[in-house]
Specification:
Elements (H helix, E strand, L loop, with lengths): L17 E3 L7 E4 L6 H6 L9 E2 L2 E2 L17 H23 L5 H5 L12 H23 L2 H21 L3 H15 L5 H8 L6 H12 L1
Antiparallel strand pairs: 1-2, 3-4
Length: 216
């Protein structure tokens, strides 16, 4: 249009949808210029980032190797045995570390009244020492393997448990429980990690439920 002051002004209008229809029909949208792309249109149909089904079959993630020693290729009974062993280890480790409070009055009777104020260290220090055990075991299990770290933890758990049982003083008992807690720390992260590594992605939630059931 021509303005009064001699300058022309252009007006840009957005593209309108093309309407089609007959005289007797209501008009409807046929095409829209600048419509969304096909990828954006399919985005609403995506239910996750991993495809577990393809052609009616389950996609195995991660893909197993042909090696018979691959943990993913273990027989079913072997995997359930691993779940039971690892969960039993975790249950005993956590029970001895955190379950002393239920029998703490009986433990106090084993020591003199002078040691009664320090006896609470049997409850507090083990919880603290579980964290370093967990912190150092995870990098080690990635570097040198899960099996040696798990076996070393079980050996340390057994030896420190005997140390606590044979201790003749409160200080010795506290030290033994601290080493026991370092070995028990693997029950928090490495134990579930072992269960996940021997199962496919679509199996992990059910198998971790079995692990937690045995542990508790």
């Amino acid at each position: 249009m021509q303005a009064n002051m001699g300058r022309s002004i252009r007006v840009f209008l957005p593209a309108l949808p093309k309407l089609t229809g007959t005289k007797d029909d209501e008009p409807h949208v046929d095409t829209i210029e600048g419509s969304v792309t096909k990828a954006l249109a399919q985005e609403d149909q995506a239910y996750g980032t991993v495809q577990l089904l393809q052609g009616g079959s389950i996609v195995l993630i991660p893909t197993p190797s042909p090696d018979p020693k691959d943990p993913l290729n273990l027989p079913t009974w072997h995997k359930y045995l691993i779940i039971f062993v690892v969960a039993s280890y975790s249950a005993i480790a956590v029970l001895v570390t955190s379950g002393l409070g239920a029998v703490f009055p009986s433990v106090l009777k084993e020591y003199t009244p002078e040691d009664a104020t320090r006896a609470t260290d049997l409850l507090t220090y083990p919880t603290l020492f579980m964290r370093p055990g967990n912190l150092f075991s995870m990098p080690l299990c990635v570097t040198i393997g899960r099996r040696p770290v798990f076996l070393m933890s079980m050996i340390l758990l057994l030896l420190s448990g005997l140390w606590c049982a044979l201790s003749m003083s409160l200080s010795s008992h506290i030290a033994g429980r601290n080493f026991y807690s370092i070995a028990a720390g693997q029950s928090e992260a490495m134990a579930p990690f072992l269960i996940e590594e021997i199962h496919f992605l679509h199996e992990r939630s059910a198998k971790l439920s079995w692990f937690i059931g045995v542990q508790t």
